């Protein structure tokens, strides 16, 4: 077995073999510095002509970017490396010579990099982002498993549309009409009545004609759903979950955050509880700030969310939105029926909404009326209504968008870099 770069600290002073690729290279007549990567990390290999001899040194000097190779060398402590180690190379075995790799160390435009996404993923920055994404997924499973949740997988092919019908990807299911899932929520409600506390993690499809730094056509969502949890309980789970993933990334991805140049002081204090503001107060606040374009009853746009988030150094919950701008399943506030028991969690630094959640209607007659008012098909929602006929209980849940969360925690501008192969308006390649 080859030694992985991330584990070299265990082999200080010893000889190891690494299987990897040449990311970059600098050389003079006497010494060559190889930037090596193996998927687990990056390390510098030092090749000294005097020590390795003519033949190995010539091989090192001839190496081209992204050639695959085995490198045999001794692990040596080095304070300048982010790992604290470098490899003193003894021998090199080239597996494949790479010719004319298109992504050179010089700067490239975004469209060029996106066209070469299958190769761009190998760069140090993209590698760091994928590892942070992986850490958030790992910490998600850890959090929900430790808190008594079961993972449940809702279907991707569905016959109903929980978040409204305008942004659906329609497809054929033999002779029937079907849609790609835009949220697993309704199925997770059924699962919560069977298993109590559940969470899902899966792809979500929205045919949104939005071309912004926050929108993907295909994104991944974590959707927890909890029986007997009310609106307040729901917010507590959310702030504890988000705190856990931020603290886990800080603890387990210091090298990756450093690669991205992330300002850690923006993350260290992200711990529950999070501030809350009602929709009513948010509207007042926006009017005071001079936003005349928004009235009570309107949904917030990105500039509104950013203005609200700027007042806080943690994510902020905006609660109790008007009934008219939220989906049919949300429980109204018991004190006034023009707002619902919902909250969006807005990330700091302009990253926008990362969570949408609510308490769900659990009264059968009331939910039926809502389905009728929204002109939804009673046939498609028959099973969903039945959940309210057989031992209905108050319950709540939420959905966290993975890519927006990765973007915020990593501090990258656009969600396109936070998913391996982004699906965007006008982009289905590669
Ligand atoms: O607010 P949304 O639409 O909520 C739901 O789908 C609920 N059914 C979830 C639930 O209660 N189980 O979406 C949830 C989150 C958003 O807050 C955002 O982070 C992300 O999903 N999201 C997107 N991320 C990237 N691109 C898009 N086009 C997104 N649309 C939503
Ligand atoms: Mg939302």
Describe this structure in words.
It is an enzyme of class 6 (ligase). It is found in: Cytoplasm. Belongs to the class-II aminoacyl-tRNA synthetase family. The strands form four sheets. The protein has an eight-stranded mixed sheet. α5 (124-146) packs across α13 (402-410). It is built from 13 helices and 18 strands. The model has no long low-confidence stretch (mean pLDDT 96). It is 30% helix and 27% strand. It has two domains: 5-96, Nucleic acid-binding proteins (OB fold (Dihydrolipoamide Acetyltransferase, E2P)); 117-417, 2-Layer Sandwich (BirA Bifunctional Protein, domain 2), CATH 3.30.930. β16 and β17 (352-360) form a beta hairpin. The protein has helices at residues 49-52, 54-62, 110-115, 117-120, 124-146, 185-195, 231-252, 254-259, 279-288, 302-309, 364-373, 382-386, 402-410; strands at residues 15-27, 31-37, 42-48, 68-77, 85-96, 150-151, 157-158, 170-173, 176-180, 197-205, 218-227, 276-278, 316-319, 332-333, 336-340, 342-347, 352-360, 395-401. It has 430 residues and is an alpha+beta fold. 4-amino-1,4-dioxobutan-2-aminium adenosine-5'-monophosphate binds next to β11, β17, β18 and α13.
């Amino acid at each position: 077995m080859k030694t992985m770069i991330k584990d070299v600290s265990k082999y200080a002073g010893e000889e190891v073999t690494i299987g990897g690729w040449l990311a970059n290279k600098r050389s003079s007549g006497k010494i060559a510095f190889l930037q090596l990567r193996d998927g687990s990390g990056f390390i510098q290999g030092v090749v000294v002509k005097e020590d390795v001899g003519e033949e190995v040194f010539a091989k090192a000097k001839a190496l081209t970017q992204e050639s695959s190779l085995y490198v045999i060398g001794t692990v040596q402590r080095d304070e300048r490396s982010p790992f604290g180690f470098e490899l003193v190379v003894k021998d090199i075995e080239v597996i494949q010579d790479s010719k004319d790799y298109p992504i050179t160390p010089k700067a490239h435009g975004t469209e060029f990099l996106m066209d070469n996404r299958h190769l761009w993923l190998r760069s140090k920055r993209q590698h760091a982002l994928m590892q942070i994404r992986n850490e958030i997924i790992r910490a998600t499973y850890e959090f929900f498993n430790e808190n008594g949740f079961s993972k449940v997988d809702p279907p991707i092919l569905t016959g109903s549309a929980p978040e409204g019908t305008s942004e659906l990807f329609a497809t054929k299911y033999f002779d029937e009409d079907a849609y790609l899932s835009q949220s697993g929520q309704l199925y997770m409600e059924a699962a919560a009545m069977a298993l109590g506390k559940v969470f899902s993690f899966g792809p979500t499809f929205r045919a949104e004609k939005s071309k912004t730094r926050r929108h993907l056509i295909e994104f991944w969502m974590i959707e927890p759903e909890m029986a007997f949890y009310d609106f307040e309980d729901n917010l507590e789970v959310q702030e504890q979950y988000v705190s856990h993933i931020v603290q886990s990334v800080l603890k387990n991805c210091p090298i990756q955050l450093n690669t991205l140049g992330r300002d850690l002081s923006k993350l260290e204090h992200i711990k529950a509880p999070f501030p809350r503001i009602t929709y009513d107060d948010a509207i007042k606040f926006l009017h005071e700030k001079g936003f005349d374009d928004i009235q009570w009853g309107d949904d917030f746009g990105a500039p509104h969310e950013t203005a609200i988030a700027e007042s806080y150094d943690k994510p902020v919950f905006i609660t109790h939105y008007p009934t008219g701008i939220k989906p049919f399943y949300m429980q109204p506030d018991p004190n006034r029926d023009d707002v619902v028991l919902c909250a969006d969690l807005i990330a700091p630094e302009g990253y926008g909404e990362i969570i949408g959640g609510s308490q769900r209607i659990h009264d059968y007659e009331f939910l039926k009326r809502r389905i009728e008012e929204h002109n939804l098909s009673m046939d498609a929602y028959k099973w969903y209504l039945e959940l309210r006929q057989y031992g209905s209980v108050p319950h709540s849940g939420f959905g966290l968008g993975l890519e927006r969360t990765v973007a915020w925690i990593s501090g990258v501008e656009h969600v396109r870099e936070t998913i391996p192969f982004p699906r965007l308006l006008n982009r289905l390649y590669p």
